[in-house]
Design a protein that fits this description.
Structural class: mainly alpha
Strand content: under 5%
Distance between the termini: 184 Å
Largest sheet: none
Number of strands: 0
Amino acid sequence: MVEINLTIVIQVVQFLILVFILNRILFRPISQAIEERDEKISAWEEKTRTLQETVRIKIESYEKELVEVRAKAQEEQQQLSNELKEREEEKVGAVFEEAAQMVASTKQALQEETKRLGQELRRQAEEMAQMVAEKVLGRKVS
């Protein structure tokens, strides 16, 4: 059997004193350190969630802005392309107009030259006819 005597009471008191001392020196500081660490982790998690949300919002904003910039760039490119086509058409039209003027002036110059050559040929033909007539008739024809 178990005998209850003074040594058991002293051991129980010593155990209680040890538990009290360990609680003050070891268990409470460890508990506080664990609670502080848990609080820090919670704060970091909240900060991380906040940063992730901020990053998500900024990425969405960036992507939206990127789409707008691309659309604007495409619109400007189309506008420049249209302007280039208009200028090209104007230049081609000017070249055609200049070519038509050159053709007309060349045609007129050819007509004038043809007329002049025709007159020259008539004059020469008349002179030749007169010479032939003079030779055939043997006298001068006026």
